[in-house]
Amino acid sequence: MTTLLEPRTAAAAGPHAGPAVAAPRRGSARRIATRTALVVVVGTTLTWAVTTGGPDGGPRPVGVARLALGDVTASAYLVPRTDGRATLVVAGAPQVHLAVTVDGSPATLSTTGGVATTPVVDPTSPVTVGITTPDGHSASARIALPALPAAVRTDDADAWLGHALSGRATPATTTATQGSDDPELDGRGIVAGLRFRGVHSAAVLLPTSDRGTLLVRGITTAARTAGIRIDAVGAATEPTALRDDALVVTGERADAIAARAALAEVHRAPLYGVWLAPWLFDRAVLDSGADVPGEAPAPVVFTLPLDPFGTAAQAYLAAITKAAPGQPATYEGLVGWIAEHSSLAGARRWQLYVAGDAAFLPQSLDAGHDHGGPAPTWIGSGGVNAASTPLTVEDRS
Amino acid sequence: MSAPSVSARLSRRRRLAPTVALVGALGSAAYLIPAGHAAASVDVITSTIHGSDGKTYWATNHLVKAYEPYARVSRTAADKATANAATAGHGHEYLLVWAGDENVADTKGSDVTSLPLAVNPVKLLNVDAAKAGIAPDFLAVIDADKTSPTYGKVVNTVTVGPLVENEPHHMQYVWHKGDKVYAGGLFASTSYTFDVTDLPVVKLANETLPTDTACGSIPDAFATLPDHTAYATYMGGPVAPGPCTYSDGTTRVGNGYGGTPGALVHFDANGKVLGIFPTASTTSESYTVPATGATQPCFDLPIVVTSSCANPHGIQVRPDLHTLIASDYAEPRDIILDPVKPPDAGIFRDTVRTFDISNENHPVLRSVSHMPDGPRKEQNPGHEEPRGIMEVSVTNQHKHKGAFAESMCGGVIYYTPDITAKHPVWREVFDDTTASAKVIPQVTEGGGCDGGGWVAVDPTDHYLYHTVIGRSAGALGPDDTGSAKMIYALDVSKLVAAGTGFHCDISTISQVYDGGTAADCPKLVSVLPITDGTSGGPHWGAPDNFTRNADGSFSESKTWSRIAISDYFVARTGVDGNHKVCMVDVGKKGKLTLDTTFRDEDEGTPCVDFNRTSWPHGKDGDAKPHSELFVVAGADVR
């Protein structure tokens, strides 16, 4: 897995990223010392991270700064908006009320769950973000939108953001653990869903990644036991793919989007729909093709090991909506969030889900309407719904 | 779904300081709800049920203590933490409005960038309202008693959870004593059942999930029966694509959520699913247009094995005729396609279905009728008269067997004199253009996709009322005059009285603007324009079907004295609205006038504005009122 974050020292990060740490105010230090017995004020800066939602759905840079103040830590993110401006997000421990300054001036905050969001700021020049505890201690760091490094996988960055939104994680140390935690088990989950629906045959679109390969391994092994025929196909519109009951996409975002588009173009879909790997459960895939004139995206089905409506998912959706306006929710982000708050294994509950685009009028009734705003949901126009009770997934034994 | 375990807990809190309300499903992500309604404190009463998925679902009342009639509620009863805060005997009528929280996804770019210049000394409005964030949908309980000092005030908001932002849609058309209130949410395919026995307190009686209605998705409208059970149209196809077996043992193949074919769901008197039934024929529903000989397909995307137009939206029942009628609007998932170059106008359905409900729990499809084309020749085939048959309304007198259907994209009204016939005869009897011309004499394409919605025939079968969203000027191009946003009334008495021998038929182009020439054609008796600068207009309506008795109780009325209308459609489709609920007085001969005494409590102007900073449940900001219903507490109805 690609290393996503390269935490750098201020010196290495260039002129925009150097930490500017304020000393604790006199008098206040005594109070904090008696409370924590630790009076260390540290400011560090991470120079970049990436996440999806940039132009053309590709990655976009997010400025990051991490601030530590004794036992109080906070992460600050400069999240670009589609209108060319940016929102400064400060995620701290939920129980701590932080006063935040931007370039030395108090910032007006919208606060929820320990996450504070400022109004939009000018992203063209670095800003200095500062935090102050109720005790009067403060720290600050400079933050800027950096250039995007090459060869960064965006879904890993999503997972990182899920971690970071919790306000607890140290992004640099958690990044490398992200991604689907068990692709082979995910493959077995898909077969459980196929069996639930009564599918007899499925075409599997060949994987394009290591995790996709593991997923296919899980599918083929479990399908053999379940008596489901699996055919490997190279394209979504191959005769075999349309003849089989279902098509399973095991690749990455681009593969899923391309498969949906190809099927939409021919107005066809497998009888039981297009089944997608869990990590493809995000808005970029769900909304793909919805705005193509004259075509309708093929219906998609997921067997997810994590509940997208559960407590953790709701918290994640709420946090990402508040903390990173415009940032789409992703499965990888949910993985990161859950990993940070509890355990993925403990949260696992397999269930079948479907996504539905739904609208009820042609757009001619409203000239110039656009739906470009960020949504606190998994999908832009429509919803995601459970289509089964919890499924039993065979383990490897 | 298990029986409701009403765990009523009542707490009182004064919203004098920021209050942290922990929304149960959100775990550690608590919502910070800042100071709420400035002048009112609320009592909070919650009822819960366990869903079929094992999760807990709830409805939470936020009763404004300062407002009548809740101020009269026995504090003793409340202190006992019982949900039965009875108001029996007070004789009070309420308007229930099913509304969704507006969030940032409902705001379009042009809303921000195209704001007209205006006097605005304050840079930002409602900056402390959480307009863009996640917040619960709710049932607003509005005082609808004209004699009350709190007429028009929101006396309670009943928030539902844990599902949020579910796009509240329709309830039943009319509430009768003993009925529950059935209410649907689009995005999560969830139907809520509310117990309104103890109004203004509302309890959650049941909640159905997509897994409870696997053969249908996207609940649209509800119709109740005398035994207090209810039917619902599920407009979209089976939740998961592929074959689905219904409660009657038959199977249809569908193309999935929001696709085709839709379904009929029968609920028991407490909202539990009794059965789900097919609305599609077992054979292809494509048909040959008589005038041209061309085949008109039911266009489904992706293609369905057996072509079907079954996407039921409007629903009405004539129990005395053992007949249910439903109209198909569109395959919901696919009508976001470019309307200028639609792959096929057949995406907008032109069909009306009748069902034999002699066995109420086994409705059987009796007929599928394609509405005839009219005299207009539209550039956009999706604007032709029969496109998008959204709503239907039955006649009510036992001697009458007729029904009306209206097209949302076609902008006309159809009529058949006998819905019990094996092959009902439908004709166009009115074009919305005739009404629109009273407001915009220079109107062009008055009916083309004008957004006709709610339609209802009064209990006397004398008048028909119809709301029309209208079309904003310029919507179709710079030369588009737009069409009127309005509610209008037709005298349909002669048409209904004519029986199967009726002559009315809008078949010539002159009748589009002038109205029908046959003696039994509907006569336009009143048009009430609705001022609205948004993309939407009045979509829905509900008649006040009650009259007050001398002793303060209520009885169902044989006439309608007023109609409540709501100005909102579905924001994410591109058609929003001004989010107002207005009261319209119905005078003699169907004359419609705005009730200017039904005023917003914050703005002091007519109509209750759902764009507001504060609600009894908190500062959640603007809300989207889709449908409404007049209801009287159970003990207050004779």
**What is the mean pLDDT of chain B?**
85
**Rg for CA atoms of chain B:** 23 Å
Straight-line N-to-C gap of chain A: 27 Å
Molecular shape of chain B: globular
* Share of β-strand residues of chain B: 35-45%
Specify which chain pair forms the largest interface: A-B, 74 and 90 residues
- The beta-strand count of chain B equals 40
Helix content of chain A: 25-40%
**Which sheet architecture does the biggest sheet of chain A show?**
7 strands, antiparallel
Number of discrete helical segments of chain A: 12
Major beta sheet, strand line-up of chain B: 1-4-5-8-7-6-40
Number of strands of chain A: 18
The major sheet of chain B is characterized as: 7 strands, antiparallel
How large a portion of the residues of chain A is in β-strands, by DSSP E?
A: 15-25%
Task: Quote the average pLDDT of chain A.
Answer: 65
Structural class assignment of chain B: mainly beta
Order of helices and strands of chain A: HHEEEEEEEEEEEHHHEHEHEHEHEHHHEE
Spans of chain A of 5+ residues with little confidence (pLDDT < 50)? 1-60, 146-154, 168-179, 359-376
Spatial extent as radius of gyration of chain A: 23 Å
Residue runs with pLDDT of under 50 for 5 or more positions of chain B: 1-39, 74-89, 107-130, 336-341
What is the secondary structure topology, with strand pairs?
The complex is a heterodimer of chains A (397) and B (638).
Chain A: H1 10-13, H2 28-36, E1 41-44, E2 49-51, E3 60-69, E4 72-80, E5 86-92, E6 99-102, E7 105-106, E8 110-112, E9 115-121, E10 127-132, E11 138-143, H3 154-165, H4 171-174, H5 183-197, E12 201-205, H6 210-226, E13 229-233, H7 239-243, E14 246-249, H8 253-265, E15 274-276, H9 283-286, E16 300-304, H10 311-323, H11 331-341, H12 344-347, E17 351-357, E18 382-386
Parallel strand pairs in A: 12-13, 12-14, 14-15, 15-16
Antiparallel strand pairs in A: 1-3, 2-3, 3-4, 4-5, 5-9, 6-7, 6-10, 8-9, 10-11, 16-17, 17-18
Chain B: E1 5-13, E2 19-21, E3 31-33, E4 42-50, E5 56-64, H1 75-79, E6 93-101, H2 109-113, E7 138-143, E8 154-161, E9 168-171, E10 181-185, E11 190-195, E12 203-208, E13 217-224, E14 230-236, E15 242-245, E16 251-254, E17 263-267, E18 273-278, E19 287-288, E20 295-296, E21 312-318, E22 323-328, E23 351-356, E24 364-370, E25 389-394, E26 403-407, E27 412-416, E28 427-431, H3 432-439, E29 452-457, E30 463-468, E31 486-491, H4 493-497, H5 510-514, E32 523-529, E33 540-543, E34 546-548, E35 554-556, E36 562-566, E37 580-586, E38 592-594, E39 608-609, E40 623-632
Antiparallel strand pairs in B: 1-4, 2-3, 4-5, 5-8, 6-7, 6-40, 7-8, 9-10, 10-11, 11-12, 13-14, 14-17, 15-16, 17-18, 19-20, 21-22, 22-23, 23-24, 25-26, 26-27, 27-28, 29-30, 30-31, 31-32, 33-36, 34-35, 36-37, 37-38, 37-39
